[in-house]
Amino acid sequence: MTTDETTTTDTTTITDATTIADATTRNAPKLPSPELYVEVTQFYARQMHRMDGDDFGGFAATFVAGAEFRLAGGTVLTGPEAIEAGARAAAGRFDGAQPRHWFDMMTVEEADDGTVSTSYYATVTVTSAQGAVLVEPTCFVRDTLVRVSGVLRSRSRVIERDDLVVHARTQG
Question: Which one, of 165, 147, 139, 145, lies nearest residue 157 by Cα?
């Protein structure tokens, strides 16, 4: 479309490139403040440092009472105690190797009530004593964060493993 052309969308008439850009971003989510984005990324860094450091109680303490944690297979853990037990049990699969959780491509959206919704890609690497590195299946994660006494805590987490999603999609 050239700037000389006119297009009508719903109730807006688009007549130039600037208006086109405005129309395509009008319904885009509001960007988080830089302070909120840094706060969220620091929250996740501290949370995963606890997990990867075998501090399962500290990891679970980053979730609110009644929090729901939906694992990739569909199991739902409810509350910090169940989340701690689940994290401790899951770490057994590493057989002494060192896991590292990596989060990237994160979106952060804050609602008017202060609730923060995030989504991100997650990868877990596991390094053996011999230096071999295993990359586990990648995941897409959606979280809801809330403030408790001014500090971010997880209210819900939903993990979707990419290989399971692809398998389900290709099976019909």
Answer: 145
